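HUMAN: Now follow token order:
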Amino acid sequence: MADFALPVQYLRLIADLLAGMRMDVPAWLRRNGLDEGWLSQADAGVPYTVFQALMRDALASTQEPALGLLVGERLRINTHGMLGYAAMNSSSLRQALVLFERFVPVRTTLVTVRHEVDGEHVRVHFEPARPLDELEDLVCEAVMLTVKNLVDHITMGACPVRQACFRGPEPAYAALAASMFRCDVAYGAGWSGLVLPLAGIDQPLSTADPASAEEAVRLCQRELDRRHADDGLASRVRRLLLDKPTGFPSLVVTARLFNMTPRTLHRRLQEEGTSFAALLDEVRHQLAVQHLKAGQLTLQEIAFHLGYTDPANFRRAFKRWEGVAPSTYPRGPARP
């Protein structure tokens, strides 16, 4: 799939929200190398670095720390395109969750979604698909609130979300979050996601339409296949490394897996503005942050999993990535 995907419809909605907050949207766009005409293009897209700049600018200009919640509240089911239509016509909430896990890259590559059964509950996890840094709260709040509203919409309240969990500390606007999620909100949970009652996820949905759902799934799959076909080599190498979170393949092995020589792989990556070493460093950074937030491994174990034979090298790399030592980085709950 493309290295970064976010439909322009979402950015139009954010622009409308900012305009309602009396922000100069044309100036906001110009500061980040865009213009108003760009928002009207049906297939407009931006690099991830531009998205980061837009969101940082919006946070700084509005001085609204709960901007992610305000965005999430505006994202209704019809803004999610064919994926929203597929979810609405699913036979059960479980089927809708499976579709989201499978096809969320069609709508955004900012996060991944997965669900797991935990006793009498189902946990729906939302994990950053890349290091989001200070934008993680904004993105997770927006995505989780829109999915919570989608669950309420398609189940008509028959399977109420029990809790919204965030791995980070409680913000000053926690009361606002609770009022918008309309359920218990827990901070410092070590993970980000929604908790649903297991008993409700297989109940038939009144909006179910098997024929419409099948057609929507077919169109989502076609779009996903198209994104895979449009992959650049850098995206494919990054995905290969992420699929092997321990024992990363070397440049020589990676080249062989892509049926090319190491020299050709190096040249092709250079043409895309990167290198094998840079991609490996990026993947290590992403996985290091995820491991620390999960809180399940010691620093020495994380260093080993990331291919550092000397933990001191891992500590130096992490300080370069995040500006702090891994020992001082906020961690999830310690394992028992």
In short: Residues 1-63 form one domain. The chain is about 55% helix and 10% strand. The chain has three domains: 1-63, 65-222, 233-328. The first helix runs from residue 8 to 20.
